Amino acid sequence: MPVKRTMAVTLAVGLVVAGCGTGTYDPETPEAKAYFAAPCPEPGVKPASDKEFTYWSMWTKDEPQGKVLGKAVRCFQEKTGVKVKVQWLGRKGYSQNLGPALNTDNVPDLFDQDVTKVAAAIVTPGGTQSVEDVYAMKVGEGDKTVRDVLSPSSIDFPQNKDKDGNNFLVPYETLSSAWWFNRDQTKNVQQPKTMAELYSLFQSSQTKDRSAVSQDGDISFYNMYFFTQLAERFTGAGGLYAAASDRSGQSWRNPGLLKAAEETAKLRPFFIDGWDAAKFPQNQQRWADGDASFLYLGSWAPSEVREYLTKQGVDTKVTFGSFQFPMPEGATHDIVEQITIGFGVTKKAKHPEAAKAFAAYFLNKELLRGIPDVASNLVPRPDVDVPEDLKSLKAVLDDPAKEHVLQYDGLESLAGGRWTTDVFDPANLALLKGQLTPQQFIDRLASTQATFWRNQG
Predict the structure, then answer these.
(1) Which of 109, 127, 134, 324 has its CB 3.0 to 4.6 Å from that of 122, i.e. a possible disulfide?
(2) Architecture field, domain 177-335+410-456
(3) Which H or E run contains 54?
């Protein structure tokens, strides 16, 4: 087995922040300097009546995204005369602040969060209003509207619809995921065409000092990646969500889902020693230190890894490469997962006109480019350049031949998130640990789910 190197566990990024595509703000990079020095663009829409609005942000003001949105706020105020009252609440704002406020009159006009969390915690209790009118607003680039500049896949998908069939989120950041490797360490890696090629790649990368795959197993949604990525290639967009919504649980008896479980189980022998006992971000950091060749993680991997290396003060450099899961034998859906972060407008908003005008304004290319230039993340505009680290992943997202699927097919929004914690997570962890066979995994999902939905009433 590979030798395990001892290292300090630095909880520089808490569990709440993990997966949100953030990092350390560096104002000295050429891209950041150019972005903040650039003049404010003219808005495509100026509110006719609203003179102010409130905005509760999922970012803190000192995070890269907070800095970028802070510039957009200043520009909007300068160009429209509308006052923006911002509260920088951080990641738990939707659960600790917005959710409890829905039954009061103290709600913001505008908020932001990822689409799955919004669907589970805000849309379900009826806390949002339609943003269909925002898509028709101009962004300040001639006659271009919000819908004109955004990728259709970032807007039109079932989990972005409220009970009336209207979109409830205007996206401004896109997250995806991939197998990551260091091009300087693991050379000549190409996109595997089959699962057999993937396993062969992992096998050849292992040495006595290096594992194939690093994994922080204490984060349940990191553990979800493997089965869901493979299963979606059998079911397509919406297929897993439909299976998980089946009150009988019998939809899990799909042969493709069993095949996905079998392929997932084959990954376990390649995981780094102690993957299921480590505390995030220990094994992510071990990958950065060269203890493993591959890491499956979201598009925030480069920024988080670089933040860690910078804080360690080490000379280690990572030249990021990435590739996608191949199609398992018998699968028919060539998918790529994505999750959008965007703006929502509350049902009780007092100043929806101004809030919606700001949402459209931030989609202006000169403002939105701050997400890649300052925060090193992806955006749902195909015409905005991205960092070198993310170009291969961006190419996959922009590939018109790919079928776009919401991350985990939106499973995290089911029953306010309780389906994943009560039904899926325990069974999935047992499968990855080898405590359940693939067939037992499917059987457990079917039976546990039926009980779960009966208890929901």
Answers:
(1) 127
(2) 3-Layer(aba) Sandwich (3.40)
(3) strand 52-57
